[in-house]
Amino acid sequence: MDRIRTSRTAWAASLLCLGLTLTACGGAQEQGAAPAEEAADSAVTAADAFSVTDPWIKAVTAEEGMTGVFGVLANGSGEEITVVSADYDAAGMVELHEVVSEGTDATMREKEGGFPIPAGGSTTLEPGGDHIMLMELTEDLQPGAEATVTVEFSDGSTTEFTAAVKDYAGANEEYEGGHGEGHGDGEHGSEGEDGGAHGDEGHGDH
């Protein structure tokens, strides 16, 4: 009888140990889930948070050589993201530009630091303001067409969007400095309230 009781006691003890072991393993798995979730959150890139509304490009011919890309850039994340560069297959050069007004003159220049987009906010690319400049075009951009533009962010991630090409009479600012043949060679232009260029020397619209 003593042997039977001893066996039953040992069997119960074994079950108790097994239960404790499984509980410990389950707790370890739950604790390990949090870092995995945090890692997934940290893997979200600036490109994932980016979106663009109503992107468009001013129609030009390849002979005119350059044009601007406009639209509203939005950031759906909780941290600021920054567009640092852009690319377009049919452009030999693409820059991020701003327009600086001095008196009645308005001149374009490359924007240092790119286009920051605030957390949960947006920034607008518009004629007379910040814009993406497509230069050294190798093909016409005709009204009604579409063009795919790629943007890169400060974290190295990239994404692309498709912009509609349309006629626009304004956006004729001149460059602060030369950017190669046909791009102007000085600070010599301005844009009036009607969007027309007032400089005598032109190098293509954007």
From TrEMBL:
Signal peptide limits: 1-28
PROSITE patterns recorded: PROKAR_LIPOPROTEIN (PS51257)
Annotated region described as Disordered, given as residue ranges: 173-206
Coiled-coil spans in chain: none
Pfam name, any one: PCuAC
UniProtKB keywords: Signal
Alphabetized InterPro entries for the sequence: LpqE-like, Lxx211020-like, PCuAC_sf
Compositionally biased residues, Basic and acidic residues: 176-206
PANTHER family: BLR7088 PROTEIN, COPPER CHAPERONE PCU(A)C
Protein name listed in UniProt: Copper chaperone PCu(A)C
Source organism per UniProt: Nocardiopsis dassonvillei (strain ATCC 23218 / DSM 43111 / CIP 107115 / JCM 7437 / KCTC 9190 / NBRC 14626 / NCTC 10488 / NRRL B-5397 / IMRU 509)
